[in-house]
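Kindly inspect the following:
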Amino acid sequence: MRRWHVLAVMAALLLSASPGFASTGGQSPQQVHGECAACHLFSQETGRAGLNATPDELCTGCHLERLAAGEHRVGVAVSVGASTLPLVDGLVACITCHEPHGLSGNAALLRTEPADLCNRCHSK
């Protein structure tokens, strides 16, 4: 039990000191999205963390209005580009464009600047 608490505190300190801290209005990703356990399951047996749902289910659990607004589709195959962006089972997911821990330092938790990000998959 003590090991899990030490890991959680270390993760919180690292993330709150990340560049993404400034992109969330001065709030750490934990303050915006809640504690690690909101998305992660921790195994006391292995000391490893996993997700408690798919990445898109985790995102839309709080941000359902983003899908309703007709923003970028998820669950679609990528035909070109995106080789450097994360996919989930080969499909576009929320985490393809957004870094959920806020490590990039960009607004809206985007992985890179908006123009660069879009151009990785979409031609000009």
Q: What stands out?
A: Strands lie at 40-42, 49-51. Confidence is low (pLDDT under 50) at residues 1-23. The first strand starts at residue 40 and ends at 42.
